[in-house]
Specification:
Blueprint: H1 3-33, H2 37-40, H3 55-62, H4 68-103, H5 109-121, H6 124-138, H7 144-168, H8 172-180, H9 185-196, H10 198-214, H11 217-222, H12 231-236, H13 246-278
Helix pairs in contact: 1-13, 3-4, 4-7, 4-10, 5-7, 7-10, 7-13, 8-9, 10-13
């Protein structure tokens, strides 16, 4: 067997193993979501159910005002608003800030960028009390606006890191040519740099959306009602004090995972190229 053929086989086998390890829990979650509760708690565990139970999805989509379905639907709307709002604010701030770090020369430029990244590396629990006091003083506890603000503290440093590195890969000569033709610096940014940085921007949008969509700690501490509760918190509350419907938790997890999966499939080629290019210079 040729060496190239053997390496190809090994690579495909490794990819298959990784795919199975990653997809197996998700596949079991799909099965659990339609498995009756009596089978899920039986011993020994029955991996393939003899009957399918779709009542959990019906409860989520059609449940009354006081049901877990109503809580899930309200949390889905809140999560969408928080994720979209966080992405919008973070991208505006991140694009302008990343362009400044990549193109402008000022004192302590690298130190300031490292300081932003250091805030991203801090554990969330270390920031809970200061953020709680700030939101309380502003009257933004238990509100989607408050969640957008605190999520931006997580997402903006990440966007700055991705886009500042990506902007460095774009030749400055393109901007200089645009400015010679009469464009301002902002005009060159929007007409030259941003179109050339489209893969990096899509990558930043994708990962910013995922960070905001899946954020749990801040949403758990800073929300208390359906007015601002997000999906991770709502799903965690499906577990009762004395019993847990594991199938309901699985059904909620599947529905919560679908929007990020769809977005990732749409923008996957931009995400791969954007992350690869944004990591080569710094």
């Amino acid at each position: 067997m040729k060496r190239t053929t053997r390496n190809s086989i090994l690579i495909h086998l490794a990819a298959l193993v990784v795919a199975v390890v990653i997809l197996l829990p998700f596949g079991w979650m799909v099965i659990a979501s339609v498995t009756p509760q009596r089978i899920l708690i039986s011993t020994p565990l029955q991996w393939i159910p003899d009957t399918l139970d779709w009542s959990r999805y019906e409860l989520i989509f059609r449940g009354g005002a006081e049901s877990v379905g109503a809580t899930f639907r309200a949390a889905l709307a809140n999560t969408t608003i928080v994720a979209v709002g966080t992405v919008a604010v973070s991208m505006v701030v991140g694009i302008l800030g990343a362009y400044a770090f990549a193109r402008l020369r000022f004192r302590f430029r690298q130190a300031v960028l490292i300081l932003f990244l250091a805030t991203y590396m801090l554990p969330q629990i270390a920031l809970l009390i200061p953020l709680y006091l700030i939101l309380n003083s502003l009257g933004l506890l238990d509100s989607v606006v408050g969640l957008i603000i605190v999520d931006c503290s997580l997402v903006v440093p990440f966007v700055l890191w991705i886009l500042s590195n990506y902007f460095l890969t774009i030749p400055e000569e393109l901007e200089e040519a645009a400015r010679i033709d009469g464009a301002s610096r902002l005009g060159a940014l929007f007409r030259v740099v941003l179109p050339a940085a489209r893969p990096g921007i899509f990558a930043a949008i994708m990962f910013a959306f995922l960070l905001a969509w899946d954020e749990f700690m801040y949403a758990l501490i800073f929300t208390s009602s359906n007015a601002a509760k997000t999906l991770p918190v709502a799903i965690s509350e499906f577990a009762g004090r004395y019993t847990t419907d594991f199938g309901l938790v699985a059904a909620g997890g599947i529905l919560a995972a679908l929007p990020p999966i769809i977005v990732a499939l749409i923008f996957q080629r931009y995400v791969v190229s954007g992350m690869a290019a944004g990591a080569v210079k710094g």
